[in-house]
Design the sequence.
């Protein structure tokens, strides 16, 4: 620890980051005999993704925009751990000096639709404006409703909801997990079905990052959720092996049930056409082999060149 009496925790400067951190630390405190909230010193850190909250993420660097500054604080020993939304953490390791030492139990990974009219996704009138910043969600919308307008939506959760309520959009899509952690369940018009909106890798998952071989690993280990860990590692391994990132229109979702791990992947092009869909399963202890198998099928059926091209899109906004 940086201080004998404190564990220094680095997080993004947002309400959601604070809410997630409070959930995780309170869970740790509840099972520890010698910890209290005073054990932790929370430091909020402005990341590039937070500062540039208007531009498209894929046009200002794409990978690691919400974590790089926090990781540098860990490396420089300015904080002991960082707490991340794991969907924001690139699948490939940015630094070999850091590792994820704890995985909080995954929250519901589904997408949530918020609409001013109270109408559900398939009830929205043609020409309705739907907001998102995700290339993946954009492709999923187009696969189902090419009669809707898609408009870029950036900012934190509060800002996005405010833009909706000010009628800049008719509806928006956000992560259900974030809304639940912020206590904003009452804002949700519809939980979108996974059959139509398969989640992104690690959606709903929170992780604790530290330097490799940190003594803090044994402290956080007591609240590590093993099933979330192997599900998330499986999803991340697939993305890493096919060299995809969070800007790609790719969904990868793994779920453990009765010691069997089922993983599903869908890939779209930017016009909303589904170009890959596969479900594989195996014993959960074989999770890495399962990921390698799925990645191999993707590369065989889709090809690395096509996947690389999916990382970029010229015009995000769409009108029918």
Sequence:
């Amino acid at each position: 620890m940086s201080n004998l009496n404190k564990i220094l925790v680095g997080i993004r400067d947002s309400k959601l980051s604070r809410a997630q951190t409070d959930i995780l630390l309170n869970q740790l405190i509840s099972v520890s005999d010698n910890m209290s909230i005073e054990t932790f010193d929370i430091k909020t850190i402005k990341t590039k993704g937070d500062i540039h909250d208007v531009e498209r993420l894929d046009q200002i660097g794409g990978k690691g925009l919400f974590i790089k500054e926090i990781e540098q604080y860990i490396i420089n020993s300015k904080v002991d751990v960082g707490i991340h939304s794991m969907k924001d953490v690139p699948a490939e390791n940015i630094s070999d000096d850091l590792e994820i030492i704890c995985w909080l139990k995954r929250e519901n990974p589904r997408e949530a639709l918020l609409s001013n009219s109270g109408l559900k996704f398939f009830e929205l009138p043609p020409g309705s404006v739907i907001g998102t910043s995700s290339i993946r969600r954009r492709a999923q919308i187009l696969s189902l409703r090419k009669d809707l307008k898609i408009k870029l939506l950036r900012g934190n959760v509060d800002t996005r909801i405010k833009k909706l309520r000010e009628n800049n959009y008719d509806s928006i899509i956000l992560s259900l997990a974030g809304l639940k952690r912020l206590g904003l369940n009452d804002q949700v018009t519809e939980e979108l079905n996974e059959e139509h909106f398969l989640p992104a890798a690690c959606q709903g998952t929170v992780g604790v990052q530290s330097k490799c071989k940190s003594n803090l690993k044994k402290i956080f280990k007591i609240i590590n959720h093993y099933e979330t860990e192997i599900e998330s590692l499986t999803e991340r391994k697939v993305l890493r092996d096919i060299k995809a990132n969070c800007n790609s229109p790719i969904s990868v979702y793994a779920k453990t049930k009765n010691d069997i791990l089922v993983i599903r992947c869908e890939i779209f092009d930017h016009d909303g056409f589904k170009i890959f869909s596969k479900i594989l399963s195996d014993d959960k202890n074989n999770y890495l082999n399962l990921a390698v198998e799925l990645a191999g099928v993707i590369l065989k059926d889709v090809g690395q060149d096509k996947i690389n091209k999916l990382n970029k899109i010229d015009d995000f906004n769409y009108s029918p």
The chain has three domains: 7-106+205-224, 111-191, 240-309. The chain has a mean pLDDT of 91.
